Amino acid sequence: MLQIAAIVRPGVINMEKKIQELKERIEQANAVVIGAGSGLSTSAGFVYTGERFEKYFPDFIAKYQFEDMYTGGFYVMRLSPEENWAYWSRYIYINRYMNTPWNRVFFLESCTAIVP
Q: Where are the chain's structural domains?
């Protein structure tokens, strides 16, 4: 197993050499696994507040003063089971099945290539 993550870190002096080494290791690898957190969707333009939130959650904003979809997800534990399901089913539908704010969506194909 190649330890690629260890070669890319802040403060590396010879970045070109490290980039070349990373390129070679990726070319030799059978698969590449990329770990990413919630910041990835945010950096791609996916937002959980503002106009988009206000358009789809006006009832939760009015009744519970939700400020955004993200923090609303913590509050729903205090709601009735029906309101909880209403919130999460809408949240999932909007964020998973409706047109996303992204210009392009990429799919991982066979863990070897990213296809637009």
A: 47-116
